[in-house]
Amino acid sequence: MGSYIVINSKKTPAIEAPGIPVFKTERAGHAVEIIRGLCLKDPAAEIHVWGGDGSVFEAVNAVLSSGHADTVVLVIHPFGTGNDFARNFPLRKDFPGEPNRIDLLRFGSRCAANEINLGFDCDVVSLTHKIKRFPLFRGSFAYMIGVLLTLFRPLGRRFDLTVTGEDREEEELHGCFLLCLAANGGYYGGGFHCAPRARLDDGLIEFFWVDKISRLKFLAFFLGYRKGKHLNADGTVCRKYSSFLHYKRAKAVRFENAGTLCADGEIFHEKEIVISPIEKALSVQVMR
User: Fold this and answer.
1) Which of 148, 170, 204, 227 is surrounded by the most beta carbons within 10 Å?
2) Which residues of the chain have pLDDT under 70?
3) Is 124 inside any structural domain?
4) Mean pLDDT of the chain
5) Is residue 106 in some structural domain?
């Protein structure tokens, strides 16, 4: 098993690693090419990736497409603006021993490591990408600015979907919703604790959907949602949000008219999509 370093951030400092090959990306999607090639060359590779959540998304999909997810280990060094995926792991500077086998969320031919959202959150991410071009706007601050600006746009989208619960019972949902979130990890938006009961290895999707509500009611909800206070410890929705926030642990979610969706901060356009977990799909470690 060989070790390799892939740097996918322009702001990453120079890394000195005698005897370890270092690859630096030169364009969008280059990390996928590099990592997939390394996996094909060395199916038991330990690949260190320096970058943010977008880099995690690229690395995960590169490993899966190589066919060697059973043997490759990804070591993530968070160096982005949000680093939400890394928040799911304990804060430590040493390796935690054995790698963590984590689930992934499959949608179409791709997989997300952290979360997939549609509706309001997706619109916020699209706008946040533009805001981050300005040097003073980074991380959760940029996301919060995106939230405020998105509030001035028309709210709510029509969704038709089927949620398959952990008991395999199906529930059809049809209506105008503010947002839908399928979470594998617990954080997004630079630290928003969107799914406080999420685990990366339980084989389940933490699925939330919010009815179309007024802007004033949303702002009141937003503060609790940011801190993860929208759910009680037993998994029930907090009483003051229960009239419009819904939560279910699911095995699959099928959207008939998904439209624009956001997966780990990356924007995609899909008409019909099924989101389902791949259990313990990949070995991952996080260095901080």
Assistant:
1) 204
2) 9-11, 13, 91-97, 129, 131-140
3) yes
4) 90
5) no
